[in-house]
Design a protein that fits this description.
The complex is a heterodimer of chains A (390) and B (139). Chain A is built from 13 helices and 11 strands. By secondary structure, chain A is α/β, with parallel strands linked by helices. Chain A has one domain: Peroxisomal Thiolase, Chain A, domain 1 (3-Layer(aba) Sandwich), CATH 3.40.47.10. Chain B has one domain. Chain B has 1 helix and 7 strands, in the order H-E-E-E-E-E-E-E. Classes of the chains: A alpha/beta (390), B mainly beta (139). At the A-B interface, helix 4, helix 5 and strand 5 of A face strand 3, strand 4 and strand 5 of B.
Chain lengths: 390, 139
C-alpha cells in the first residue's frame, strides 16, 4: 500500500479501581508505562491525540488534556487535539492519525486515553443515562444503559429467534480468553457457564449481571506511525490496511433500523478500502459493553451469517482453540471496561495479535484481523483492518 | 418501599420546537410535527424537518396507535425515582404514522409485553405536565 501507516507500539494499564488516581494521574501512568516498555525518544512522538478522562464523573474532565500531556512530555507536536466520540474515540484517533501521517503532517501520532468510571449504584447510572439519552424524549421514561442496549437484543431475538442463553455464550467465551490474560480483571477467577450468567442478578431483560461489562478504570496508548518510524520501533508493526467510519444516530429510538445500526456500514468501507473481505479476517476484536454487541456485530461485519450470531457463539468457534477467535483479551465483559478509555482495549489487543506479542493467548493465525468499536448507544462506528504485511 | 422516600420522576426538558407537543400532551392530545414542504410526519419535534430541512412545519393529530418495536423489562432501578416501578417496561414504539418514539408500556404485566404487540397512547401525570405513554390495546 502507498503511504503505509502502522501501529508501532501499544501499552495498557491493568483495569482496576484506582481511587487515588484522578484522570491526570492515570494519564501519567499510561505514558510512564508506554515509555518504559518501548524506550521511546522525544522525536518518536510528533503528534498527540487525547480524550478527556472522567467525563461521566461529574464535570471535572480536562478538555485541554492534550496540551497538558505534550507539555509534560516536553514535545511540540505538529498535530494535536483533544477529542471525544465515546467508545469510538480511539478508533477515530487511529483513523485521524493515519490521515495526518499520509498527508505528511507528522511521522507519528500518539493516540492516548485514560478513563474513570463512576459507581453505577451511587448515582452513576443516572448520570450516564442523562449523558446518553435525549433529555426530553428519552430520559423522562427512565432510561438505563443496559435497557437501551437491550432494545437491540430483544429485536434480534424477535427477528431471528436468538435466545438469552446465546447472549450468555458471548460472556462465557470472553471469560475463557480473560483466564489466559494476566492483565484481565477476571484473571485467576472461575470460568463462566451459561447457567452462571443466567443465575446472576437480573438487570434489564434479556441481560443479567454477567451480560454486562465490568466498570473499572485504566488507560492505554497507541503509537501510529509511518513506515520508517514503525519499522524502527516494532519488529512486526500492525499495518493499517483499511478503515471505515459511520455515524448513525445519537438516541436509540432514532436508529433507522436496530438490525442495521451502522457497524456493517463502517465495516464495508473498511473492507473495501483494504481490498479485502470478511472471509480474509482471522480474528475479530469487537467493543462489547454488553453481551449483545459481539453477537450482532459479527453478523453486521459479515463474519457469520445474518441471524446466526447466537449459534456461532454457542458453537465455541470464538473461544480459545476455535476457528474464529473473538475478543482474545477477554473483552470489556471480562477484561474490564475502563470508562472513557474503554475504546482502546480492543485496538490494543488487535495490534498485539498482529504484532505477535500477545503472550500465552497469541493466536496461531493472526495475519489479518478486524477491530470494531463504537461510541454512544451504538451511535457511531469505527472499523479498522490490521495486518502483518503493508 | 415507602413512597415518601421516592423522588419525583424527571420532567422532559423543553427543547426548541417541542413546546406545543408537551402542551398538547398535557391536554391529553397526542400530536406529531408535520413538514408542509415534503408532507412527512416525523419524531421527535424540532425546529426543522429532518428529511428536507424545511422550517415550515405544522402539527397533525396522531392516531395514538402503534406497536412495540422493541423493549426491555428493567429489573434494577437506574435511579431512586424508579425504585417503586421495577419491573417496568422501557420500549421503542413504532407509531401507526411511521415514526418511532421511546415510552414505557403501562397498565399491564411487564411479562406479557411482546415485540409487535398493538399499543395505544395514554397520558401519565408528571405534575406540571402530562407525558405520552402507551398501554396494550384492549379489544
Amino acid at each position: 500500500m502507498v503511504d503505509a501507516v502502522a501501529i508501532a507500539a501499544v501499552s495498557e494499564m491493568k483495569p482496576a479501581r484506582y481511587p487515588d488516581k484522578d484522570g491526570h494521574a492515570l494519564y501519567i501512568e499510561v505514558v510512564r508505562q508506554l515509555l518504559a516498555e518501548w524506550h521511546l525518544k522525544p522525536g518518536d512522538i510528533q503528534g498527540l491525540l487525547a480524550c478527556p478522562a472522567g467525563m461521566a464523573g461529574g464535570g471535572n474532565a480536562d478538555i485541554f488534556v492534550h496540551e497538558q500531556l505534550y507539555e509534560e512530555l516536553g514535545i511540540h507536536p505538529l498535530y494535536g487535539d483533544t477529542m471525544n466520540a465515546g467508545g469510538a474515540t480511539y478508533g477515530y484517533m487511529v483513523q485521524r492519525a493515519a490521515l495526518a501521517i499520509r498527508q505528511g503532517l507528522a511521522d507519528s501520532v500518539l493516540c492516548i486515553g485514560a478513563g474513570k468510571f463512576p459507581k453505577v449504584s451511587t448515582g452513576g447510572a443516572e448520570m450516564m443515562a442523562r449523558m446518553v439519552s435525549h433529555e426530553a424524549f428519552e430520559f423522562p421514561y427512565g432510561t438505563f444503559i443496559p435497557a437501551i442496549y437491550a432494545q437491540v437484543a430483544t429485536r434480534h431475538m424477535h427477528e431471528f429467534g436468538t435466545t438469552a442463553e446465546q447472549f450468555a455464550e458471548v460472556a462465557v467465551s470472553s471469560r475463557e480468553w480473560a483466564l489466559r490474560n494476566p492483565q484481565a480483571a477476571t484473571y485467576g477467577t472461575e470460568p463462566l457457564t451459561v447457567a452462571k450468567v443466567r443465575a446472576s442478578r437480573p438487570i434489564a431483560t434479556p441481560f443479567h449481571l454477567y451480560d454486562c461489562s465490568i466498570p473499572l478504570e485504566g488507560g492505554a496508548a497507541i503509537l501510529v506511525a509511518n513506515a520508517s518510524v514503525a519499522k524502527r520501533i516494532a519488529r512486526q508493526p500492525a499495518w493499517l490496511l483499511g478503515m471505515g467510519e459511520y455515524h448513525s444516530h445519537r438516541n436509540i429510538h432514532q436508529a433507522a433500523d436496530l438490525m442495521d445500526i451502522g457497524c456493517g456500514r463502517a465495516g464495508r468501507m473498511a473492507y473495501e478500502r483494504a481490498g479485502l473481505g470478511p472471509g480474509d479476517m482471522q480474528f475479530a476484536q469487537i467493543y462489547d459493553a454488553f453481551s449483545v454487541n459481539p453477537l450482532v456485530f459479527m453478523e453486521e461485519l459479515g463474519l457469520c451469517a445474518r441471524g446466526k450470531g447466537g449459534a456461532f457463539f454457542a458453537s465455541g468457534a470464538t473461544r480459545p482453540g476455535g476457528d474464529f477467535p473473538v475478543n482474545t483479551y477477554g473483552g470489556l465483559l471480562s477484561f474490564g471496561h475502563t470508562g472513557d478509555a474503554s475504546g482502546l482495549s480492543m485496538i490494543v489487543e488487535g495490534a498485539r495479535q498482529v504484532m505477535g506479542i500477545a503472550g500465552d493467548r497469541q493466536l496461531p493465525r493472526a495475519d489479518i484481523g478486524v477491530v470494531h468499536s463504537y461510541g454512544g448507544m451504538m451511535s457511531e462506528h469505527s472499523t479498522l483492518i490490521l495486518g502483518r504485511q503493508s | 418501599m415507602n413512597d415518601e422516600t421516592i423522588p419525583a420522576k424527571p420532567l422532559p426538558k423543553m427543547t426548541p420546537g417541542a413546546e406545543h407537543y408537551w402542551h398538547s400532551a398535557t391536554r391529553e392530545q397526542f400530536v406529531l410535527p408535520h413538514c408542509t414542504a415534503c408532507d412527512k410526519v416525523f419524531f421527535y419535534p424540532r425546529v426543522w424537518c429532518p428529511q428536507c430541512l424545511g422550517q415550515d412545519l405544522d402539527w397533525v393529530h396522531a392516531s395514538g396507535h402503534g406497536v412495540v418495536y422493541s423493549f426491555s423489562v428493567v429489573h434494577q432501578a437506574p435511579f431512586p425515582a424508579y425504585r417503586g416501578d421495577v419491573p417496568y417496561v422501557l420500549a421503542v414504539i413504532e407509531l401507526a404514522e411511521g415514526p418511532r418514539m421511546m415510552a414505557n408500556v403501562l397498565h399491564c404485566d411487564p411479562a406479557t409485553v411482546r415485540v409487535g404487540m398493538p399499543v395505544e397512547v395514554t397520558f401519565e401525570d408528571r405534575g406540571e405536565i402530562k407525558i405520552p405513554q402507551f398501554q396494550p390495546v384492549h379489544s
